[in-house]
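OP here, attaching both records as promised.
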Amino acid sequence: MSALPDHRPPSDAAAASSGEVSSPGESKSTGPGVGSSGPGWLRLLWRTAFALTFLWLGVVFVFPESGPGAAGRVGAPAAWGWDETMHAELPAVQMLLHARNGSWFEVMEVLHECDRYPFVYPVFLSLWQGVLGIGQATARSLGYVFYFLLVLLSMRLGLQAVRKGTDRGPRVDTVLLVGLAAISGPLARRYAPTLFLEVPTLVMMALSLTAWISRRYRALGTGAPQAGARARIDLLTGLLIAATFFTKFNYALLLGLALFLDALVDLVVSRDRRAEIVSLARTGVPLAIGLVWWFLLPLPLGAEVAAEHRGDFMEFVTGNTEMEPMQPWFRRLFWIAGIAAHPILYVALCLSAAAFLVLHRTRTSLTLGIALVAFVVPVATHEFLLDRFLLPAALVLWVLGGAGAALALRRAPRVFTAVALPLFVASAAIPAFKTTPLIGLPVAEEGSTLRGIQEFYVGKTISLFGPPASNGLPRGVHDEIMDLIADGVGPVDSVGWLGQSAEISPADLHLSLLERGGSKERFLEYAEGPMDIVLLPSNVRVDFTQEELLEYARQFDHVVVPAEGDLVGRAGRAWIPEAWYAPLRASSATEWKTLGSVLIERSNEGPWPVTLELMHVEVDE
């Protein structure tokens, strides 16, 4: 097996075998001990504190009821919401049931219907539940696995970042500080136990970045990479990039921008440009094959599906471009509250990352700096912003900030202590919402709307011990509702829902009935179809004739009716009982049965009582 040509000096080749090459013009470290100073006991003390904090945060994440924020949460942890059930769990269970039936063409049909939530994570969910059983708890447990993979991969990226020449850097400190930054990121912790794609995509992005950095130099053996080994590394990197694309489209575009810019740097500084072009081309092969399959030739389906994929993708990536820009202070609120455990620590993390990029000039740190810019600028300049869009940038900030702090602890432990200790004390003593002057927004007066926003976002929702990022009902209430409906409709009868609320999607209802012994045939036939006469009735009244309402209801054996019209008492939907339920109650063709009542806790208002009824319409023979 022939080796690729290597024209670097022997010192550079040795550095390459360790996984890092210094930037042009920088001095080389001569060994792992160079630059260390200060008492070892102080570093050991910090390491112990970081390790204990890391373990505690891990335990609190798995058992949130033991955390300090448990008493302040509103109700129980939320059940899964609309997007989680409709776009992740529904296709996962459909694929699993079709596979168990041996209906592989139907499996591929479901896979190709994953247009907004690409298919990678639903496939993982399907495999996971195929082993452990179908259900909400099982599905969400996979998020915990991906979350801890994310923390481990952040540590791995940190180890790559601190290498400089033959100096492998402060490995223990880096692992602890990067890991602590990652495991204490509020947004990642909130999205991990959900079925949103953020944490799985961050895992894929971290894998892709790790492989991208490694592919420059790592291979079987030492010195210059062997040709076959380099090809395998390139193809593996390309597979991970392709997997990222089919995990979440928009985050993959950010990753693609970062790697494109970094590849341009490689081409400029490469001593063997032809070999670099060949390597980059190999890396792009898996993604190119995936794009051709998805957008041009979606086997085993046809060209019409490819056209749908192209249209859905363009609609997805170009959507939300004509919205009113969000208030700048509100954008900054997401940044200071969501990435680090406390806004003060977020500022410290940013300063540490900046210092690392300036003082630790290596090719890897340049790659991560480019990634940070590529992940921040498009998100910061787009009109549409959700808090979770910050997570790709958070990944890089955890790595750079943690690595910078690790180098500071290694080189000047006394200085590190003098700076870090007051920051940790301040973050523990000062409530997060009182730090809004950091974003140019004074702490609002008690009782004002702005104060409510500050406390809601900074102090509770996007906080270290905030609730999971789901818009579902409290889990106990959700399960109580589903138990009532399952008892009323039985295992095989079809069911609709007149006046459906956003808290329970059609997929949620059918998944819950399946989990409670409902037939697989009913699930596969009805779970994807509409359940209401209109999708999610809005605040604008829509009237139907009695016959139109009866015609709708005859599609199902039973129709669920919340007597109050809305599960959480939205004032804008108070018209539903009069407009829809009253004409049906007046018809002699309908039969009504009360299933039971539940009390739904609401965060900003008092509890809302809901009576669930079941309606049956006689079908004319």
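Record two, same layout:
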Amino acid sequence: MIRKTGKAQESAKSGPNLVHSCLIVVPSSLVNNWKAEFDKWWRFMRFPAVIALQAKDISTYQSTAKSMPYLIVSYDMAQRHVEKLRSQKFDVIVCDEGHKLKNVDGKLRSALVSLQIPRRLILTGTPMQNDYDEFYSLLDFVCPEEFGTLGEFRRMCNENPEALNRKIDECMLRRTSADVNTSHMPEKHEYILFCAASKIQKRIHSEICEYMTGDALSLIFFARQLVNHPKLLYDNLREKHDKSNQKHSALLLAFDGETMPRGGVKESGKLTALVDMLKCFRLLGECAVIVSNYIETLDMIEQLCKFLEFNIFRLDGKTQVQDRQKAVRQFNDQRDASNVFLLSTKAGGVGLNLIGASRLVLFDSDWNPANDQQAMARIWRDGQVRPCHIYRLITTGTIEEKMLQRQIKKTGLRCVIDAIEVGDTISTFADEELKDIFTFIEATECNTHDLCECPCDGSGMMENEMAEEEDEEEEEDVENRKIQKGQQDSDDDEEVDDEELESEITLLEHDDEVVEDSADEKDEDDQEKDLKKHEEPIKTKKNAKTLGVASLAELSRWRHFSPRHQDTWRHFMINSGLSQVETDVQLTFAFYQQSQY
């Protein structure tokens, strides 16, 4: 998004030197990443930027602005030292991952607006994550007053979207994945792996479903902890119980006897799968990135990786800013198959280039699909030379499937900026939705596949391939019927004596026209029946898409695999790189897609 003021347009006519000083504001985790990019593109020239890691660096910029016109600062530092920045004169401000300014009344946004920089540029892959209000905040930041008040903007969205789109086109340069030149990029393979819940997880999930009283947000958090590992939930409940004897004590009582978690790998379906996946990756000679939303989950995975003798790199909210790029650089340079990079979705899920790895595992999902998409894009970046394999782990029949379905519904509906006008917070869930979220569906391979009513039965075939196979089978049946009919007619002819045969021939000669008319009439009837026969399954497929499952149509671009189809499942496991070790992991279902964007 670029603000084009009248002054800027007039200056363009008078000469090319419009910008002499530039403020670049970025997330903390990307400060050194931007430095690395400047190093890359100014390799044989004087370094043109000041990296503000401390307040004094902002003061240093004032004396070096002519030779070093770029000042790179984190959002946090920009907000804390806004007075120092206000004393400087900047011609343009660049806000990387600018969706951070989505709150129109937020302190960060207000601080940057107060700098009164005439030209403003926002870089973001997700300009609207939840609703139009957030999008308005970004538009109003780059083009103040151009879109009126928030109320006027809402009315324009509903009453005159065509005019709104024209105004948006004037200030937004949009580049979709299809516009990016990916000819130099390697293949990208994406997988959604559905893992069977352990016995403990099933039992405790049922308890959570029955324990519907109290704070729904807390219960959702409990359910998400459980699907990662029951020990995480138990430790959390124990800590809360120690602070307040009454809080969630009934749920804590469910952990008893056989359901008492010991912290073992087998107590979590996803963790069991992850162990074998890591072994496979190491045998393939490829590094891996593991992403999670939770520090506690990363702690658990780190202990596991140490036990498996992996070299661990880690970046989360506790990692010092100056240490982040160092960890990224070391990981990318070493490319050791025993290296594993543990990444927090929120701290490192945007902007980082982790091209030292070619395998990425998203261990748990976020309600907001934009966060997951950003995190999963860390390895398929400029500079990557190996085919990338990206795996998302889902515990079958649990809250994670509900989150996945909600994500698909959001990304499947395209409005102004590839998002849906529905929030992601707990306040947007109706009572029926909450009940559905906490319902554990045990008798299913994949509830998501059930809902999209795909006719593939987990065979791995696309709909067009199934249609072609049906056509081939039908043609074969027609040929077989013709052959059988010819043989039957031949047998009947042998039993007919010469006199009867001669009389039939004579009769046919006299009634030739009648016979031909009758045959034509029969052909038309048969054709009509055949046409109806073909139309029925087509209508069925069409109905499946136009019902409430239409929002899951995004999955029609993926191949669906079930272990029931042993040959195709074995082929899938080999191609996905998951067949290198003997395993007793129970994957119940899988989605697969290969893409170049």
